Amino acid sequence: MGKLPGFSDVYLISGLTTIGGLIQGFDVSSMSAIIGTDQYKEYFNKPNAVLQGGITASMAGGSLLGSLVSSWTSDRFGRRDSLFIACIIWLIGSTLMCAVQNVPMLIVSRVINGFSVGMLTSQGPILIAEISLPHQRGRLLSLQQWMITWGIMIMYFISYGASFMGNNGVFRLPWAIQMLPAILLLFCLPMMPRSPRWLAAHDRWEEAVEVLARLHAQGNTLDPIVVAQTNEIREKIESEKKYASTSWMELFTTRNIVRVHCGIFTHIWSQLSGTNALMYYIVYIFQMAGLTGNNTLISASIQYIINVVMTLPALVFIDKLPRRQLFIFGALTMAVFQFMQAGLMASYGHYVPGGLPGSPTVTWKVTNPKASKALIACSYLFIAAYAPTWGAYPPEIIPLYIRSKAVSLSTFFNWGCNFALTFFTPPGFQNIQWKLYCIFGTFCLVAALHTFLLFQETCGRSLEEIDDIFDNKSIWACKNKKEPSRFVADIEQAREDLDAGKLDVKQVEST
């Protein structure tokens, strides 16, 4: 066997993998500060609400395709190599984007970039989940979300700084800078190991065990943690051999439909809460709150800072707090602030025929100063509620033999909802104004109920344990009692077997 890649620290590898999240964040806010600039409006002939929705949503449209294609590249080439392919595609799209000449070229370049983001958002979390231990997994998956928030904030400030250039560099410079993280990830990926679970699934057990040892035991293949993990993975792969099919239809069998459905709705509820739609068009929202000019951009930037800061608690506490309770608390709190924003806008705002000067999309304005401040505060508090509570869940709950397909399908629905909301939010602000917040708030309430009923607890459990919970427990998560994780007991058993001389390297690596 050839020499393994150089990186062996789980946190370093996960941190590099989450550069994909940084890229996604760059893409999310690559339009936010730019769409309000005079240079952008003039160069692209002042796109109306529908056209601007199409321009912004084109990235999500590409992500729909990328997320589905990534399931094939992941199964065929592995999680790591899928990320490599995605980086190449991102560089192509970004090159076209910073050289853009017209609206069609802008849409095409954003579709290409979106294709890359669809692959990155599918495969990055899978790789992180498959290399981490149970007590690390929640924190490391939250790191992906944290990097997305950093990407959103960094690109917003880059765009804000570029807005003072006074020429087409206002949009060309930010769109060129977004190539840098992809270049960094591209050079680091060859030094990162493949997923040990992917290697095991392809009957490359010697490599799988060595990767586990490098990641968790400084190269010691007889470490109890390595032995316990290897045994769990082997048992699960053996048990899954009876499910001969790995086709797309396998996702909808009786065994898998509940967990696939939960994975899909994790993304659907995250989108239908309104978080990303409101982030894309934060400039419009603060214009409705009565802000103008530079004040709009500065106030919008505060929301991105809050998003970064409030994701930190998830990094610290997520492996100690139940996932279900976090999801439910977050959804209910977000609902409160969405309805509060609707109430403030309805009570203190008025219709603006034809929209504000230079912004025909903004047809509602709050003129009461106190109500305006309260509206902005609710916007900040909404993000503060979302950031530490809603995170990655699908990579944890899907069995190995269909993981790439199921996570890709979940991500497909994520970007499908993102596309729809991104496209229809500007017309929504234009036509139903504050009522849009009522729709988002209602979705948040339904998300809380859905999570309470069906989302199983995953905190502190190995991927193989979680698989058993979905196989053997009631589908009604609200009825299941939490039991101690067996992974700790498996480690102790492996330690006893090693001390008794019952295991050696060949036994650990054998299939």
Along the chain, the helix and strand elements come as HHHHHHHHHHHHHHHHHEEHHHHHHH
Net shape: globular
Can you give the mean pLDDT?
A: 85
Question: Roughly how much helix do the residues carry, as a percent range?
Answer: over 70%
User: Which architecture of the largest domain does the CATH hierarchy give at level 2?
Assistant: Up-down Bundle
- The SS-based structural class is mainly alpha
Question: What is the β-strand count?
Answer: 2
The largest sheet has its strands arranged as 1-2
Pfam families: Sugar_tr
Protein name: Major facilitator superfamily (MFS) profile domain-containing protein
Transmembrane segments: 49-70, 82-103, 115-133, 145-163, 264-286, 298-319, 326-351, 371-394, 406-426, 432-455
Family: Belongs to the major facilitator superfamily. Sugar transporter (TC 2.A.1.1) family.
Would you write up a description of this structure?
The model has no long low-confidence stretch (mean pLDDT 85). The chain folds into two domains: 10-192 and 242-465, MFS general substrate transporter like domains (Growth Hormone, Chain: A, Up-down Bundle); 194-241 and 485-511, no CATH class. The protein has helices at residues 10-17, 19-29, 38-43, 49-77, 79-98, 103-131, 134-162, 169-177, 180-188, 196-201, 205-216, 224-240, 257-272, 275-280, 282-288, 293-317, 323-348, 369-386, 394-397, 403-431, 435-454, 463-472, 487-499, 505-509, and strands at residues 349-351, 364-366. The protein is built from 24 helices and two strands. It has a two-stranded antiparallel sheet with strand order 1-2. The protein is mostly helical and 511 residues long. It is globular and about 80 Å long.
